[in-house]
Amino acid sequence: MFGDLFEEDGDGFSSFTPGTGVKGRECEPPPPRGKIKLCGIKNQGGTCYLNSLIQTLLFTPEFREELFRLGPDELGCLADKDKPEAKARVIPLELQRLFSHLLLVDEQTASTTDLTDSFGWTNNEEMGQQDVQELNRILFSALESSLVGTSGSSLIHRLYHGTLVNQITCKECGNISERQEDFLDLTLSVRGVSGLEEALWNMFVEEEMFEGNNLYRCSRCYQLVRAAKSAKLRKLPPFLTISLLRFNFDFAKCERYKETGRYVFPLTFNLRPFCEQNNWPDSESSYELFSVIIHKGGCYGGHYHVYIKDIDQLGHWEAPVSLLFFIASENSVDTEDPLSVLTVILAQEESKCVLVDQLGQKLMNKTGTPWSKKYKKQYGTISKFLQNHPEVFMLVSNGTRVALKAAGPATTEPSPTEPVSSASANNSPDNTELETAGDTEGPDGCHWFNLNDSTVTAISETDIEKQFQGKESAYMLFYRKTTMKRPPEAIGNPAYEVPPHLVETVQEENARLQQRRAEFDASSNSVEVRLHLAPHYHWQNGALHPVSPDEDSIITVTFDRRKTVGDLRLMQDLWEGDMALTLAMNVPAGLHLYDTLTGKLELNSAGHRPSRTEFGQPCSKGLHAKLFLCVLVHEHLSVRDAGIRLMTSLYLCPGPVPTATQLFLYFSVGLAPSVGQELEIIVEESLTVKECLTEMLQMAKLDGESWHLRRVDWCEEIGEPLMDENASLKEAKVIHGDTLVLVEGRLPPKVRFQFWMISYVETFQTAFFHLISISGLPQTVCEDVHRRD
């Protein structure tokens, strides 16, 4: 009947798996636990139902501690499980190992592969043959069989088994015929009832009458008589499991369907009205809810996750904040926090889902700055950032779309001196309302969490009401007696009652993880820095070049990019004296220096990339990259106006000296200048572009008039042409030291055209025409025509 109920369907139910082509990902150690401090469980492909049940058992402290009390002398050892003569009880041993891992190993997720192997499940097809209700019975049956002959043989029976009695009362003689049966869970109907208490009332209070054509044969009267059939609870277990019949079969349509109607279940309730003994005290029949396994989807596919009450307060809980807080006011968005910005963008989308490729454009529209310039250095690519925040974002459609999870965490934390409250939010100018997702804690100080495979998020008690109805609704309910209190030493102590041999194993695993993370962290942050030492370079034709091609002028240093530039300077064994560092880039003209590094900057925040190099100048700290730009100095300028400072180096070069009205220019023919191919010219700044072009053509010994001038930018790429050939060099903003390129081809001719513009004057209610002549280029566009009043 259930078929592929446990197979994960597509949109919204599956987790995005990043590509395996990322370099070094296979060597990356698992991430540590997040701020919630609880561990999730990896989904093997269709085991979300198993993960939900395992987490429920883990957060049942009494079950967990009873299991931990069984030592190796009773259960054996996992290392001996393959030995024929050994008696290793694999299922409880694997549960112990998994529980200790989930409690103590500093890892974000754990695997259930070893546990499912102990069940004999080796493929997804076999794992897909039962749902979570069937698994609950199968797992407990397997545990009972494994624990036979040990002190824990009655573990399941003591904690989960209850007794109910079915009675038939003869209305003639009063004879009562009864049949007692044990139950592991109560299976209750969802169809036609409003909630849990009504279903219990129909099951244990309402009587079924045998009358009319449906009489009962009494064993005392020996005849068909009127009788009443009823059921009562005789023995209540410490933990009450309730399975809801959400899936039914429509015989008219011959198809399965899921009951999605409203079905209310309380956080606490009393079972005394449904018990055989009505004189029990309330404390013996009172229960509180501590786990809700939820099914999301339909009868042909879906996904399981679980809401769990953290009874031992092992997790770190933070109150969820409604997304309306972010939508209500633009002023609440911290543009320095990409999590806040992206949350607002997705929350304001009508579809609540955006293509990942379009998210960057939407962010730039909102902040005015692209992701690559504002956030990429610190947070990486936008796709990586989304993957690193699974508690907020959900990647769907094979990772091509992103949406917000139902209850995302707060993206901004209030300052300790400025606490955010509902009252202060309501009094804001924008009438922003901060809606918390419910009470911060229960009456006993415990909190609720949503454990969804590898993702763990904080929720509130009011979120449970959302699972009363709909395609995502409660499927199994777990209650515990209110009389079961936890010892003070168990509160906040995940190692409570964990056997010493398991604690030792966990400590060794944590040490290995810490070492792997340190090694991976060091290797992933190690970069090769290529240092070019200034004594091995000289200036030629406007750029730096090695003094000798055969001499090794580069020193390669492996360095941690998180360290500061000052730490790099302290490596005194590679050079003598102080060191001024400047970022350098190889351009066609040679080595170009463009940014001096300060000592407090980290290497990664200073803009360093593995493909870039550093240029080191052994000198006093006042010397930096500007002395290698080598711009000619006008002799009429004072030393101060010429930009000459203390410890500035000057180079003496042969050639005429430009006057105050002359410009020293470089130029080349045809293409961007390469090393040694530039020509130098000194011209008057009052010359027109056309006259300057003529002089350059003469110097280059070129004929013809089909030439024009173009600028060269700082990275030696040809830029825009100098369009106005009648303008002077000064008017064309050609400055001292610029590089121009002679490009073959005429400039586009100027054109002249006419159009009529009608101007309507409201005052005189008359119209007149203007004939306008415009001279310009073919690309000239009249952008704005202003209305004249």
UniProtKB/TrEMBL annotation:
GO BP: any one term: proteolysis
Enzyme Commission number(s) of this protein: 3.4.19.12
Record's catalysed reaction(s): Thiol-dependent hydrolysis of ester, thioester, amide, peptide and isopeptide bonds formed by the C-terminal Gly of ubiquitin (a 76-residue protein attached to proteins as an intracellular targeting signal)
GO molecular function, one term: cysteine-type deubiquitinase activity
USP domain ranges (all copies): 39-482
Keyword field contains Transit peptide: no
Alphabetic keyword roster: Hydrolase, Protease, Thiol protease, Ubl conjugation pathway
Compositional bias of kind Acidic residues: 1-11
UniProt-listed Pfam families: UBL_USP40, UCH
Segments of skewed composition (Polar residues): 412-431
GO annotation, cellular component aspect: cytosol; nucleus
Gene3D superfamilies, A to Z: Cysteine proteinases
UniProt region (Disordered), positions on chain: 1-29, 406-440
PROSITE patterns in UniProt: USP_1, USP_2, USP_3
InterPro entries assigned to the protein according to its UniProt record, in alphabetical order: Papain-like_cys_pep_sf, Peptidase_C19, Peptidase_C19_UCH, UBL_USP40, USP, USP_CS
Enzyme class: hydrolase
Family classification: Belongs to the peptidase C19 family.
Full protein name: Ubiquitin carboxyl-terminal hydrolase
Organism: Sinocyclocheilus rhinocerous
